[in-house]
Design a protein that fits this description.
The chain has about 180 residues and is mainly α. It contains 10 helices and no strands. About 20% of the residues are buried.
Length: about 180
């Protein structure tokens, strides 16, 4: 499940992100992105079907960083994964703020279970077949996964807005207290 990004895709991703600093996502056209990336529309469509595909690829690319952070830890506990999660989003806070500016935080929030399943595969926590099986069955594990991701995402969007944000370690402690019902 390796993601390879071509030079052209990188230009297109950078063009979209640059344009998002100036305008809301919905106001940006494919022509705008192609022009900013110095490519033609046909070249754009060889690589992407639409703007959302650009953001999905960008998210998958940066999620490899998150997977790497988890791999670097000696243990995979709730605390260590939570620290890695908040370190990751702290590092990509500008991207979250771009999404917020365009009223697009839902873009990541709606896809968080899918994105984090991808990370779980990258860190060898689960196999692709296990995730596919859980998605097909949609049993209590499926609901628990979505419930947990919704909680993480909800506190992430609150945390990102704060001027004086808690450290990733402080946020991991808060998550532990929530999960272990100590709050």
């Amino acid at each position: 499940m390796e993601i390879t990004v071509t030079q052209t895709q990188e230009w297109i991703m950078n063009a979209l992100l640059t344009l998002m600093y100036k305008r809301k996502y919905r106001k940006i056209t494919i022509v705008d992105i192609a022009s900013k990336a110095h490519i033609g529309r046909r070249t754009f469509y060889r690589h992407f079907r639409n703007k959302d595909d650009i953001l999905i690829l960008y998210c998958n690319v940066i999620l490899k960083d998150f997977a790497q952070k988890i791999r670097e830890k000696d243990e995979m506990t709730l605390y260590s994964v939570s620290v890695s999660y908040f370190e990751f989003w702290n590092q990509h806070l500008d991207f979250l703020k771009l999404l917020r500016k365009s009223d697009m935080l839902y873009f990541v929030g709606d896809r968080l279970p899918e994105f984090l399943a991808y990370v779980a595969i990258l860190v060898d926590h689960v196999l692709l077949e296990e995730i596919e099986d859980t998605m097909k069955r949609q049993d209590s594990l499926y609901y628990a996964h979505h419930f947990n991701m919704g909680g993480y995402w909800s506190i992430t969007t609150i945390w990102m807005e704060k001027e004086q944000r808690e450290t990733p370690e402080q946020m991991a402690t808060i998550v532990e207290k929530i999960i272990y019902r100590k709050l």
